[in-house]
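SEQUENCE-TO-STRUCTURE ENTRY
===========================
Question of interest: how does this chain fold, as expressed in C-alpha cells?
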Amino acid sequence: MSARDVTHAALKWHAIHAHRMALNAKRLALEKEVRLRPGGLKWDAGYWTYSDVKAQITATKHKERAALKVLAKACAKQRAEFEQAEIVDVDVRMVGHENCAP
C-alpha cells in the first residue's frame, strides 16, 4: 500500500463527504420551505422532494462510511510499513504537585 493509495482513498472519502454536506444544505433549505407552507405537509410536492433528499442523504452516508473504512485500512497498511521512529524520553513534572520529586 503506497502513499498514493492513501491519497486516493482520502480524496474519494472527501468527495463523498462534500456531496453529503451539499445534500444536507439542500435538505435544510427544503425543510425551511416546507415548514413555511400552510396546510398538510404530506400532500405538498415540496414535502416529497424533501423526502427524496433525505433518502439520498442516507444512501450517501452509507457510501461515506464505506469510503472511510477503505481509508482506515489504507492508513493502517501504510503505518505498518513505516519504520519505528526514535523514542524520545521526556521528563515531565507537574508544577506544584507534592508527589513529584525534583
Remarks:
- The radius of gyration is 24 Å.
